[in-house]
Amino acid sequence: MSARLQQLLDRFRAANSVELAAVVATDGLLIESAAGPDVDVDAVCAVASNGLAMAEALGREIARGGTVQTLLEYEQGIVLIEPISGDAMLLVLADAREDLGYVRFLVAKHRDDLLEALSAI
To answer: What is the pTM for the complete model shown?
Structure first.
């Protein structure tokens, strides 16, 4: 795909707790990823698209607008989903809840760069 997009996703993976950083089409199809060896990337991306759809539906139901970011926090980690265009989302899977602030910082820092790299494909 795009060397620039891969480079940006690798920056997320440089954080010790990040197991997966991916740009995913809103229908769940993988566009590009950087992942650890034990992550079933295609399966996680497919299910994560349902998470974004759920967040969007909830936002409409409670009249709060479109989803800006969805965060799912589990006992052993976090899943962060952020729409980066009308057709794609950023998915970050981390195994340490304590790194939430740093992961959100990385998302904010690289969001525009991700969108630009995605648009170049």
So the answer is: 0.92
Nearest C-alpha neighbor of 5 from the set 85, 74, 71: 85
Q: How far apart are CA 33 and CA 43, in angstroms?
A: 13
pLDDT at 115 over 90: yes
Strands 70-74 and 88-94: unpaired
Q: Are 42 and 31 in contact (CB under 8 A)?
A: no
Question: Hey, where are the domains in the chain?
Answer: 3-119
| CA distance linking residue 52 with residue 54, whole number of Å | 5
Domain 3-119 class, CATH top level: alpha beta
- The three-state (H, E, C) secondary structure of 25-82, written as one string: ECCCCEEEEEECCCCCHHHHHHHHHHHHHHHHHHHHHCCCCCCCCEEEEECCEEEEEE
88 touches 118 (CB < 8 A): yes
Is the confidence at residue 1, as pLDDT, over 70?
A: no
